[in-house]
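In the previous lecture we treated proteins in isolation. Real proteins rarely work alone, and many bind small molecules. This record shows how such a complex is specified: first the sequence, then the SMILES for NPW.
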Amino acid sequence: MLLGGNKTTRKIDNFAINNLKIPSIVLMENAAISFVKHIDENEDNFLIICGKGNNGGDGYAIARQLFSKGKNVKIFCISNENMSNDCMINYEICKNMGIEIFYKIEELDKLFFECNVVIEGIFGTGLNSEIKGIYQEIIQKINTASNNKKVYSIDIPSGINGDTGEIMGISVKADITISFVTYKKGFLNSKIKDFLGKIIIENIGLNETSINHLLKEYYLTPDMIKSFRIKRNEDSHKGDFGKVLIFAGSSGFYGAGNIVAKSCVRTGAGLTTVITDKNNFSLNVFVPEAMSFPINFDNINENLEKLENEILNSDVIAIGPGIGKSEQAFLIFEKLISIKKNNKGNTIKLILDADALNLLSENRKLFEKIRNRSILTPHLVEFSRLTGFSTDEINKNRFEITKNFAKKYEIILLLKGKNTIITNGEELFANSTGNSHMANGGMGDCLTGIICSLVGQKYDLMKSAGIGAYLHGKIADELVKKQYIVNASHIIENISECILNIFQN
Ligand SMILES: NC(=O)C1=CN([C@@H]2O[C@H](COP(=O)(O)OP(=O)(O)OC[C@H]3O[C@@H](n4cnc5c(N)ncnc54)[C@H](OP(=O)(O)O)[C@@H]3O)[C@@H](O)[C@H]2O)[C@@H](O)CC1
Ligand SMILES: Nc1ncnc2c1ncn2[C@@H]1O[C@H](COP(=O)(O)OP(=O)(O)O)[C@@H](O)[C@H]1O
Ligand SMILES: [K+]
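The predicted 3D structure, ligand included, written as tokens:
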């Protein structure tokens, strides 16, 4: 599903009008028809509150549609001065059709009392400043009425900034928001969840393929993930699904390595090898399918030559969870990223997480070695270390900062958290799955294991990160229906079933 904001809405609008030659009034009509599909047939008494822009125009068109179905419809017109063209056209039609239109704010309380459903089209993507005066008063009244009326917002709850989700002074609290064409970036702002209600994205007669060259940002949906699937050939063998090398875990943190390895194995990688301390015997017990490459941490140099063969033999290397920031960890990390091509002549892909990111932050010249082949998976604090931006600055400007960083270093960036963002600097995915019940240690390690496994199975880096984040969160979303806390071990045991559900349903 396309992800957009205020500017992108105008861009799509202009393209549809000027290139596809769809008259704007037709787009408005399509919007109204798709909106009305979601209204409960049993509802009878509607109050539609309209502003003077195209969001108000949608409101008048929706009023006509409901009126033509025989519904009892009243309109509150906030202003009929300086209306947009299409708003004016629909306003005039409503008047000509004899729909009752009210203008005085003193009449509003009675109108609320008489209706069962409020539909508001005050502001959409055109809101451009703080809401004051009569607009503020009307929104306050809608929110008071909403205690016992169903409130539908057209496109965006009036008062929410479509780009940032900021509340511009005051906002309507909707029960249902029916938005057009794109999932608005502002909806990802977790602070406004209660204002959005249920979100539905509707079509206005534009096929996604005819407009998707205009924007490269997506809100991940099950259909998208399914479309990424690479089918397994009947005659394929384990060599076709990737040789994955993992450097994760160290004394006191062996669990991290075990979780990465088990997630990788369960996601379907062909062969998984873990570089681990020669004294760590837990791997074989926890993940018998994985192999180990034992390291003598007391004398790193004795391992580095043999390690070179292991690197040359691998398709993808995941580095970071639980390795610490010791000199030994650094030497192995440096060695692992020093060879770009494997024995087959293919580029060795890298997934860098946790301590690998911290080591990178402190040794920035290493960025040269990871260009064009890496996914970095920081959480907010790790990303703050990598960029020098504060966590507040990142939160306020996630899209721009992640894209600029990915472009600058030519890597795929996956910024973890609510609505994880994945970007290569041009294309961007915002994840739609995941919840706070999965916020506990080991979760990120599990994600690293899933992603490196997908890269091994020849999914490209963006898609591996996208499928991985979606799958990881989706499993947690399913599990919280029957349990309160979701740990990495719970995710691991459900990976395979969830992949089947996503790819085959
Ligand atoms: N392709 C699509 O997706 C389609 C989009 N469509 C619909 O169009 C909507 C966008 O319409 P839009 O551009 O006319 O802007 P809209 O939200 O009505 O607001 C602008 C009006 O509000 C005013 N105003 C702004 N801020 C204000 C404030 N703080 N306080 C007071 N006034 C303020 C502003 O006045 P101005 O500042 O210009 O004087 C202007 O009059 C979109 O959300 C969707 O519903 C559909 O028709 C189908 C096709
Ligand atoms: N509130 C939340 N909503 C959605 N996903 C979340 C939430 N909290 C945590 N997660 C997910 O859980 C994982 C936590 O990763 P991370 O912080 O690296 O954990 P750890 O380092 O302990 O393994 C990330 O994939 C993140 O997106
Ligand atoms: K609105």
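Summary for your notes: The two ends are 18 Å apart (CA to CA). The chain has a mean pLDDT of 96.
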